[in-house]
Amino acid sequence: MYILNSKQLKEADNATIKSKGITSISLMEHASILCFQWLHQRLQGQNIPIHVFCGIGNNGGDGLVIARHLLQHGYHVKCYVVNFSDKRTDEFLTNYNRLKELGEWPQIINGESDFPRVDFEDIVIDAIFGNGLTRNPKGFTKKLIQYINSTKVFSLAIDFPSGLFSDKSVNDKSTVLKAGHVLTFQTPKLAFLLPENKDYLNTWEVIDIGLDQEFIASLQPNIHYILKDDILQLYKTRNKWDHKGDLGHSLLIGGSFGKIGAISLASKAALKIGSGLVSIYLPKCGYSIVQTAIPEAMVEVDSDQVLTYFNFKTKATVIGVGPGMGTAEKTVKGFENFLKENQLPLVVDADAINILADQKELINFLPKNSILTPHPKELERLIGVWENDFDKLNKTIEFSIKHQIIVVIKGAHTVIIDKENLYVNSTGNPALATAGSGDVLTGIITGLIAQKYEPLNAAILGVYLHGKTADIAIEETGYETFTASNILDYLADAILDLFKENHTEENNASETVNEEK
Questions:
Q1: Nearest-angstrom CA–CA distance, 398 and 405
Q2: Where are the alpha helices (DSSP H) in 343-436?
Q3: 8 A C-beta contact, residue 15 and residue 219
Q4: Residue 109's pLDDT band (cuts 50, 70, 90)
Q5: What does the DSSP 8-state code read for residue 508?
Q6: Engineering a disulfide at 350: which of 137, 283, 296, 322 sits with its beta carbon 3.0 to 4.6 angstroms away?
Q7: Cα 473–479–484 angle (5° rounding)?
Q8: For position 503, what pLDDT does the model report?
């Protein structure tokens, strides 16, 4: 699924109106009816006071349509027009008049004295500003947003929480309405997926309003939201005649005294995802541990407690390096020599990233399309401090282009950056915030590359499956008791889930309004 910016969405609206021979009024009616139906299905006629706050643009027009249909179905509705400007769109005026024809005259809010009473038990529908907003709400509109937030009422935002920007960062947190749930049109919005905006929306889902898909594809958007259907297109089925030699040889390099667990987890993951052969290269102190814990793997050793020589003999097809490796002086020197000689595809994690960040000239020795998997702090060491999440993405794009590498930014919505293209993952939950989770991801991606997945596809598929294990597991483990080893336990379930009937995607909220309240 593509993620479109506000300009692209406007172009898609216009293209759909032209290609389908419809009016903007009819497109607005269709989109807003879908929002009404979503709410009606959950409320089933309950007599809960509903406050619909409408701006004077097209987002306000959506709110007016929703208010009209709620009234026609007997709901207890109060509709308000937030009169922050003398300008009105034609679509707003048309739906304003249609509402008046029902005998419902929206209350005009011209200042604080016009604010209605909103109670915690009520529902607020936010249709003040849409995703084209570029300036902070001010004056009484800002105070209205602050008032609604203060009530802690359940708020349903139409397309976008008012005050949140689509394509840049918020610079005044007090001007954004905090949405309990968002019904957004056609595509996810990048702003919903960035850590800096976590306080402005709880859950969200996409409402397909039927925009022209061919036109959207013609825009060649560079931001993608990865869903199950995308993963199915990447998945490689096995041939009846495949043997372990056909399925690649993964070499995992890492470990140091006290940190053998990290390289053990990565190696188990490479095996579990299907690498035909797996070898481990680590200090001697870890030899008996991994030989006992991972009998399927082959083992080579370096010096006693830290990696020093990197003189393995394994003929691998891909190398994953870094988990538990440490940054001892001998290790740094050995890693430098290894990079200068290596020609194999690389997955680089943990301390290997930290060494690259400390000696940035070594980045130039990474093979093209190497994959780096930093968590935020490791990324900061690589690219420098960023001002906000948009700046972080832009700096990482520049870094990826400059060095011709793929960067996997781990987080609640892991982002895979391949030059100008961004792939945002849809799976995963806070259960993955546990020691060793990143080591397992390194092993999964390494094992996929061993099986001849292109590096980008290996990163996308690996991140998706990694997250999906936690989505499946929490029904039995909960968040707190989930460990990195559970990722391996549920990896088969995550793969098998690809072939089950596709239900509502993970980020499409299933909570009803009553459950929220």
A1: 10
A2: 350-358, 376-383, 389-403
A3: no
A4: very high
A5: B
A6: 322
A7: 65
A8: 53
Q: Are 400 and 417 in contact (CB under 8 A)?
A: yes
Rounded Cα gap, residues 324 and 259, in angstroms: 5
DSSP codes joined into one string, 466-505: HHHHHHHHHHHHTTTT--HHHHHHTHHHHHHHTTS---S-
Cβ distance 63 to 50 under 8 Å?
Answer: no
Write out pLDDT tens, residues 25-82: 999 999 999 999 999 999 999 999 999 999 999 999 999 999 999 999 999 999 999 9
Three-state secondary-structure class, residue 185: strand
Token pair recorded at residue 67: 């208010």
Per the listing, tokens 């098998």 go with: 496
Length of the chain: 517
Give the orientation angle of helix 90-101 with respect to helix 58-72, to 10 degrees. Answer: 20
What DSSP letter does each residue of 4-28 carry, written as one string?
Answer: --HHHHHHHHHHHHHHHT--HHHHH
In the chain, the amino acid numbered 434 is T
Decide: 513 and 46 in contact? Cβ < 8 Å.
Answer: no
pLDDT above 70: percentage of residues in the chain: 97
Name every residue whose Cβ is closer than 8 Å to that of residue 477 and which is 6 or more positions away in sequence.
Answer: 431, 486
- How many CB atoms are closer than 10 A to CB 480? 10
Q: Are 308 and 327 in contact (CB under 8 A)?
A: no
397 contact partners, CB below 8 Å, separation of at least 6: 417, 419, 420, 422
First to last CA, the chain: 31
Contact at 8 Å (CB) between 61 and 89? Answer: yes
Q: Which residue has the tokens 């006693």?
A: 304
Rounded CA-CA distance 246/280 in Å is 19
pLDDT value at position 508? 43
CB atoms within 10 A of CB 507: 18
Q: Within 21-86, where are the H helices?
A: 24-43, 58-72
Between CA 102 and CA 466 the distance in angstroms is: 53
SS (H, E, C) 83-140: CCCCCCCHHHHHHHHHHHHCCCCCEEECCHHHCCCCCCCCEEEEECCCCCCCCCCCHH
Residue 230 to residue 336: CA distance in whole angstroms:
37
Provide the pLDDT for residue 374.
97
501 by Cβ neighbours in 10 Å (0-12 / 13-18 / 19+) ranks as: exposed
Q: What is the pLDDT of residue 501?
A: 82
Residue 100 CB neighbour total at 10 angstroms = 13
Average confidence (pLDDT) over 379-392: 97
Q: How confident is the model at residue 502 (pLDDT cuts 50, 70, 90)?
A: low
